Amino acid sequence: MKTSFFNRPVAGFVLSIIFTVATSALSYFSVEKFYNSERWVDHTNTVRGKLELIISSMKDAETGQRGYLLTGNEKFLEPYNGAEKVTRAAFDTVKYLTSDNGAQQNEFKGLKEMIDSKYDLLENTISQKRLGGTISQDILLMGKSYMDRARIIVTRMESREEILLSTRLSTLNLYGTISLVSIIIAFLVSLTSTIYFYRRTMSDFEDRIRLEEQVKYETSAMEKKIARLKDVSERIGNGEYGIQVNPEDIK
Questions:
Q1: For the chain, which domains are there?
Q2: Band (246; pLDDT cuts 50, 70, 90)
Q3: What is the rounded (10 degree) CA torsion for 205, 207, 209, 212?
Q4: Model confidence over 162-188: pLDDT tens digits?
Q5: Which residues are CB-neighbours of 46 under 8 A, at least 6 positions away?
Q6: Where does the CHASE3 domain lie (predicted)?
């Protein structure tokens, strides 16, 4: 009886290798994509954090300015001092991180204008206060306008980053699932292969034992028949011509 291709140990071993390599390649691909997506998620979160820092540092500067304008006490300028440096550093970081995003890049010109105008106004009002001048309400409202317009631009940019984050999180979750499934499949293939070859090995071993037992039995029976025929031959050779031979003894 011919052995089926899929029942041959060598064929099963080859198929097992193919499945293992395929699932391992899939696992590598999905894990690589997972970490790449994770980096993009971190990238988006960094951009969002820097955008928030732009507004928060500008608010700190404004808070220090207002406190100083109300009291004339230089201590109130502590939030103001260094705020502009933080704002511009965050601005540069966001611009660099979004260099591949045309829509975001288009926002920087307007945002820079608002930042420049806001800090110029803050510096001018503080200088006027130090010189004993008075600050009109219109000047303060102008500063509020710069802040509001900057906030609108940043909010718009944050909205784009939120969309990107949602997409990248979906991609991250997808490749995370694929990675888990591919690892499970690889494990199951390896386990199935191990069980298969164990059973095939045990089956071949048992078949070999049965064959050896059968060969021993048949050899023993044949030796007995040969011994009986030899005995009959010797007796006939000794002149016992009337000896009867049982047909069963020579079957």
A1: 5-199 (1.20.120)
A2: low
A3: -130
A4: 888 888 777 777 777 777 777 777 777
A5: 93, 97
A6: 38-169
Give the separation between CA 230 and CA 246, rounded to whole angstroms: 14
Percent of the chain at pLDDT > 90 equals 42
The reported pLDDT for the residue numbered 1 is: 46
> Would you state the structure tokens that stand for residue 24, as one six-digit string?
């391992």
Residue 246 burial class via C-beta count within 10 angstroms: exposed 0-12, middle 13-18, buried 19 and up: exposed
CB 96 within 8 A of CB 138: no
Cα–Cα separations (whole angstroms), residue 131 to 183, 188, 225: 72, 80, 133
Other C-beta atoms lying within 10 Å of the C-beta of residue 37: 20
pLDDT digits (tens, 9 = 90+) for 88-128: 999 999 999 999 999 999 999 999 999 999 999 999 999 99
Cα-only R_g, the chain: 45
User: Taking a C-beta distance cutoff of 8 angstroms, is the pair 23, 184 a contact?
Assistant: no
| Token duo for residue 114 | 């608002």
Helix (H, G, I), strand (E, B) or coil at 101: coil
Confidence class for position 142, pLDDT limits 50, 70, 90: very high
Helices (H) and strands (E) in the chain, counts: 5, 0
- Check residue 132 and report its DSSP letter: T
